[in-house]
Design goal:
The complex is a heterodimer of chains A (284) and B (334). Chain A has 284 residues and is of the alpha/beta class. Chain A has nine helices and 13 strands. Classes of the chains: A alpha/beta (284), B alpha/beta (334). Bound molecules: flavin-adenine dinucleotide (2 copies).
């Protein structure tokens, strides 16, 4: 574990000693249902994911790991933050077990039914009360795959944003980030002055697995629970009421019908049948 | 809300080149606008981009708004979101479509938050309901569920649309329309990110999986990097792109641009080969749009067979050379 923490994402080091640039990092995380277990048989107004195992959004693991690595290198504090139901506590504990220092759970029945906008509103309201150098989100959530909360949050906080970051370093003066931002055909090297909001993607690091010590410590780390009233948000702005996008219907995707499957057929014969099939379909 | 009129398309350019998805979306916008009785407006933001305006009119736009400025030569969130948000505020469209590209998905939520708009990313279908609201249709949960969304209150109704879903119409060069140049007050101080360098990782001569009609994709079943010459040979015969599952890319056997799946590319080819790929949901999330899926796997219970139109249970090192030989034979007879 320690070894992982000592490696910077690209193995490049500026060698700045601990304490030289104490960094305050906020990592917004989301608990998501495991897609493998999600099933829908017929059309409905909403998707019921009750009983589906939950996990910490995989892209957020990159964000948490990046924050912890920076803290280990520069010194600082990593604050984990989520808006979610009581069971999202499991995701918080995982991030704390990896090495987050403390957590904020934005918890209120009124937050339910949020879209990305009414999620970003709540996160922004809390973050405005805090000091930070960096906010690191995941590039997108693995459930809805929207990838909107990060940029919306950056706009609400009037911060520069760099989305899809797969390499991150801090300049020697401790004031800027230099990142590699994934593009369609490669990446861009993008620099920005902190505070800045990043969204983390695959390649940024190898997220560590929490060890037993980490898991035990996590339960004792400070965890603040904050509701809508404390934030000073009224019910019309948040959750389902504040959402600008509404789900009309969820339905199963069109099934592919009865594919051909050849078993125990000689390779030569199988190849012949395949090529005939493809030619008939006009595919080759 | 009734004051909001016009179906807008943000026509993305990359280093002054127009992205194909812009043509796809103008075609779709034309269709929506005809049903609504509104105009199609194409928006061009960048540097040295006026030359695309006429083609966008031929494609179906009634009007093209051009914001041309040297400061916009490279995409930056700050400058582009300011330009687009200003245009929207001034003209009040009813619908705004953007391509769900890397930059489209960076720009759209920023603009949405500036103007407090609902937004749905990465749509694969667009329709109008009986209230003439835009129905935004997209997959969720790795493609296991489809969702239909509306933005009942905020205007424009804004979505990013996945490239390659809609087919661009044949351009009609007899169409006419207005081209309007818009000046923006923009200073370098508005831009808080600096692009130091752009690095292309696409390997010379390698066809991109995003654009290819045929994709030949290998998984862990390929065993050794040297064995990739087999799928490469098949790909060559079919002018196909060579893709890989995540493990293959993580091992460095193929560049990240060739990874197919949820954390790689979502593709919509006519024909897709899954060779030695088990068919994990994160992989199949990327291929559900393929017209035909062919799978070769030695495990008869591999989940990929549930999705494939033609599956062969067998050792790919025995089956693939036969497929290659058979295709060569058929091609030589043509
Ligand atoms: C119309 C609609 C209906 C929905 N219905 C449901 C539903 O029935 N059940 C359900 O569970 N979800 C539902 N969602 C999804 C969800 O409620 C919000 O959209 C969500 O909170 C924002 O997630 P996202 O997928 O947009 O995140 P993205 O924008 O994809 O997330 C990017 C990053 O933002 C951060 N982030 C996102 N959400 C949070 C959060 N809550 N707290 C802290 N950080 C966060 C994370 O760093 C994450 O990696 C629905 C979404 C929509 C649009
Ligand atoms: C957050 C997240 C994101 C992910 N994103 C992606 C993604 O974008 N793309 C992606 O691909 N994966 C992704 N994955 C990984 C995914 O879950 C699977 O692990 C991965 O797709 C498996 O790759 P594979 O099919 O090549 O390997 P395996 O699952 O190991 O399958 C190998 C297959 O080859 C077959 N085989 C072996 N030898 C032969 C032979 N000689 N002949 C024929 N068949 C043979 C085996 O029967 C087996 O079915 C993601 C996972 C997570 C958690």
């Amino acid at each position: 574990m320690l070894i992982m923490g000592l490696m910077s994402p690209a193995g490049q080091r500026t060698g700045s000693p601990r304490g030289a640039s104490f960094m305050k990092i906020i990592v917004p995380i989301k608990q998501v249902p495991d897609a493998v277990e999600v099933r829908i048989k017929e059309a409905a107004d909403t998707l019921n994911t009750d009983g589906v195992p939950q996990m910490l959004n995989p892209f957020d693991l990159f964000a948490v790991e990046a924050a912890i690595q920076l803290k280990e290198e520069k010194g600082g504090e990593v604050v984990i933050m989520t808006m979610g139901p009581p069971q999202a506590n499991a995701a918080i504990l995982k991030a704390l077990a990896m090495g987050g220092d403390r957590a904020i759970h934005l918890l209120d029945p009124a937050f339910e039914g949020a879209d990305s906008w009414s999620t970003a509103i709540v996160l922004a309201e809390q973050i405005r009360k805090m000091e930070y150098d960096l906010i690191i989100c995941g590039r997108q959530s693995m459930d809805w795959d929207l990838g909107q909360v990060g940029a919306e949050l950056a706009e609400l906080l009037d911060l520069p944003q760099i989305t899809g970051v797969r390499h991150l370093e801090i300049t020697e003066d401790g004031k800027h980030v230099i990142t590699h931002r994934v593009t369609e055909d490669g990446y861009e090297v993008v620099k920005a002055r902190m505070p800045v909001l990043l969204t983390a993607t695959k390649g940024l690091n190898e997220p560590r697995l929490p060890n037993i010590m980490g898991i035990m410590k996590a339960k004792k780390k400070p965890l603040e629970t904050i509701d809508a009233a404390t934030l000073g948000l009224d019910a019309t702005q948040i959750g389902r009421n504040g959402a600008l996008s509404k789900t009309v219907r969820v339905f199963p995707p069109e099934k592919r019908k009865g594919g051909i499957k050849l078993e125990d057929v000689e390779p030569k014969e199988a190849a012949k049948q395949l090529v005939e099939f493809l030619a008939k379909k006009g595919a080759i | 809300m009734s004051e909001h009129k016009g179906v807008w398309v943000y026509c993305e350019t990359d280093e002054s080149r127009l992205k194909r998805v812009a043509l796809e979306l103008v075609t779709t916008a034309r269709d929506l606008a005809d049903k609504l009785g509104e105009e199609v407006v194409a928006v061009l933001i960048g540097n040295d981009i006026e030359r695309h305006a006429e083609g966008l009119i031929w494609q179906g736009a009634d009007k093209v708004l051009v914001v041309n400025d040297e400061i916009l030569a490279k995409y930056t969130t700050d400058a582009y979101s300011k330009a687009l948000a200003n245009l929207i505020e001034a003209h009040k469209p009813s619908i705004l479509l953007l391509g769900a590209t890397t930059n489209g998905r960076d720009l759209a939520p920023r603009v949405a938050a500036k103007l407090k708009l609902g937004l749905t990313a990465d749509c694969t279908g667009l329709e109008l309901n009986d209230k003439k609201q835009l129905l935004q249709i997209r997959p969720a949960f790795s493609g296991k569920v489809m969702v239909e969304l509306v933005s009942p209150e905020s205007r424009p109704q804004m979505t990013t649309v996945r490239p390659n879903v809609f087919k661009p119409a044949e351009p009609d060069d007899s169409r006419t329309g207005d081209i309007e140049h818009v000046k923006m007050q923009m200073s370098p101080d508005d831009i808080r990110t600096e692009i130091l360098e752009k690095v292309k990782e696409v390997v010379e001569g390698m066809i991109s999986v995003d654009e290819a009609e045929v994709v030949v994709c290998s998984g862990r079943g390929i065993k050794e990097p040297e064995n990739l010459k087999l799928p490469e040979e098949l790909a060559k015969l079919l002018d196909a792109a060579v893709g890989g599952s995540r493990p293959i890319v993580d091992l460095g056997w193929l560049p990240p641009t060739q990874q197919v799946g949820q954390s790689g590319r979502t593709i919509l080819p006519n024909l897709y080969f899954a060779l030695g790929i088990s068919g994990a949901v994160q992989h199949t999330a990327g291929i559900r749009g393929a017209s035909l899926i062919v799978a070769v796997n030695k495990d008869p219970d591999a989940p990929i067979f549930e999705l494939s139109d033609f599956g062969i249970v067998g050792d790919l090192f025995e089956v693939l050379p036969e497929i290659i030989a058979e295709i060569k034979r058929v091609q030589s007879e043509r």
